[in-house]
Known about the structure:
mainly alpha, 69% helix, flat
Amino acid sequence: MELTYGELSDRAAQGDSGARETLEWLAQAGDAMAMFLLGRMYDVPSRDAPAVDAGRARDWYERAANAG
């Protein structure tokens, strides 16, 4: 089963470690959308997502911008 970016993001925000790992893998491979979504995950408070971390969010947003 393949998941869309939105589904991966939603699952990661709900605490699904597999979805988060997939986003991180895609981001490390150069996927700008995955970088953006990781930035958002650290930027927007969510019950089961990692704690808000402005520095990590900014880093992922910058990487996404540089990747296109």
